Amino acid sequence: MSNKCGYCKKILSTKQALELHKRTHTGEKTFSCIICQTSFSQKSVLKRHRRTVHEKEKPFSCAICQKSFTQNSNLTEHDRIHRGEKPFSCDVCLKAFSHKESLKLHKRTHTGEKPFSCNICLTSFSHKSYLTRHSTIHTGSKEFSCQICQQSFSLKHNLKMHEKIHSGEKTFSCDVCQVSFGLKGHLVRHRREVHSKEKAFSCNICQKSFTRSDSLKVHRRIHTGETPFSCDICQLSFVHKPHLVRHKRAIHSKERPFSCKVGKKSFSQKANLEIHQSIHTGEKPFSCIICQRSFLQKSDLNKHLRVHSGRKPFSCDVCQKTFSQKVHLVGHLRIHTGEKPFSCDICQASFRQKPRLIWHKREIHSKEKPFSCDVCQKSFAQKAHLNTHLRIHSGRKPFSCNVCHTSFSRKVNLVLHKRTHAGEKPFSCNICLKSFSRKSNLTTHKAIHTGSKSFSCQTCQQAFSLKQSLKRHEKIHTGQKHFLCSVCKTSFVNRYNLVSHIRAVHAKEKPFSCNICQKSFTRNYDLTLHKRIHTGEKAFSCDICNALFVHKVYLTRHIRIIHSKQKPFSCVICKKSFSLKGNLKRHKRTHTREKPFSCDICLKLFSFKTNLAAHVKKTHIKDNISSVKESLQAHTIIE
């Protein structure tokens, strides 16, 4: 008699196997668990249930890694991982598998078979596990909770994967580079991406290839516009489920399950924790082969390489401006739309980009400056500002002008410099229509029209139209001089004065020439002032007596001496005040007894230049007149 099933015509090897098989059609479950009353169609399945659920017994252990199993068949399958044995091969693509069940599931990718359907939305799946996972979207059930951090999961499998975050268990090791992974899927992905470079999954629309099937699936949504994962709080939709999870943590729950063991700082994403931990380790595994600069992430290296290649693959549809990074394009598009989605919860100020909001909170509200220079201990609110600052100490100037080959430490300075060659002045005053190459120069200029001076010095109450001008002024009172000349060790309040000093004293460089009389200058600013001799322009006017001045400094000096009688420069010894810094400097010599002026004829020393001149005239007037003039000229240069 044939052992053929009367329901599905399947032929079984024994009569006993046929009887067990028929129960899949009849639904008969004759074996019940005496503890939880769950019923089963086969006695062997009941035994397995008791071991795994109630007794937690795992009598079968791996001799290599000591992992335990409830069934001998599971141990046999596990052993193939160590031996690398894959006895089950696909007859279509010849792909090999260690488990027969894995081959069976794989074949459905060729046949397109999806036998498991959702009874609510009728979506079909090739794996039963996929249907189970999908069903939780409708039920919202999360029955499995982590005992350490209380995070809940809809699937037991997901809980087990999560628990490896806490245990640090990594049982799957790459046989090429010995890197270990917590999940087998991660090991398979690693082999494809790093070693074999295999990209077996291709998009049938744009032919882009991927190492993983799920990456291709997510990519296809770019073409279809599908965003299947929706936030149940704000209804925002996402292409990818991890993006939805990330959104909920960052925006709604504020949950931060990933904690740094060193600094105790917490993060909503594991990737952010890994990046943060490299601050402690100093590890930067990805290096640029052109300039040797190192990066924490491969994505950052790829972005950096566009600096060398000049590639800008992201283009604005409105103004055709191109960008090397997509995030810059997204931020730029908000200029056209006027969108400012990031708002400060303290003052309600809105920003186009999230980093601008973070910067705003540090600069304006918290005054937090977490990034410190190891050389001079100066602190910064942004890491980018620290990196720029460090170039002052290293002398590194990576941005070079292709016209005159002048180098700069900051890219923005190169952009501004190039405008001197192009003659470009994109910023115009809407009152007098005067144009400027820099936005900051326009802002400074507008103060002439408005007269606004909203920034005041807390020490001497002097008011300024720009915050930058106030900061520069405050260094007069603090005596702070961070900029040191590497040649003569003279210190300066700002970098501009240091550069001017190096050009004038050491390099003797005068790159700025007058096109009328060909006189040369070390600073562009000095050339601008000089040109007013030819034009007769006196751009700075006293609003009290209408006196005109070529230079703003002359106007400031005039107001102090004639009108306000203000004396902001005080002697720390006798408290006497002066309207000009030069007068304070000369006064200090009365206390220090310093005598910087020397007679070249008799070597007598003097505190003041006027005293030296009087001495020469009275004592050495009969001497060689020309030598006396040369001596006085030399001292004029020194002073």
Q: Could you explain the architecture of this structure?
A:
With 639 residues, this protein is of the alpha+beta class. It has a domain of 45 residues. The protein has 23 helices and 42 strands. It has a two-stranded antiparallel sheet with strand order 1-2. Strands 3-4 form a two-stranded antiparallel ribbon. β9 and β10 form a beta hairpin. The model has no long low-confidence stretch (mean pLDDT 81).
Distance, first to last CA: 121 Å
Number of strands: 42
Sheet of most strands: 2 strands, antiparallel
pLDDT < 50 stretches: none
Radius of gyration from the CA trace?
39 Å
Mean pLDDT: 81
The structure class reads alpha+beta
What helical percentage do the residues reach? Answer: 40-55%
Number of helical segments with 4 or more residues: 23
Strand order of the largest sheet: 1-2
How much of the sequence is in beta strands? 5-15%
